[in-house]
Amino acid sequence: DYNRTITEIKVQVVPSTINIVQAIFESYEGLATVRTENPEIGLITIFTAPQNIATVREILLQTFGIVLNNN
Prior knowledge:
Blueprint: H1 2-5, E1 7-12, H2 18-27, E2 32-38, E3 43-48, H3 53-64
Antiparallel strand pairs: 1-3, 2-3
């Protein structure tokens, strides 16, 4: 089932960094895909496989200073 193999992570970033976030995640082949939900407020969704969540969290923390809730 698609919903069991893909995890959606909603994140709010500085709007001017959306393209940078997309470029970083998409440079790692197979890691994640980023969709812009609301460019005015910087709301994005990151789609990734469950086994990649720790890597996504680490990139968000180390590159952008974003800490995700444990949900």
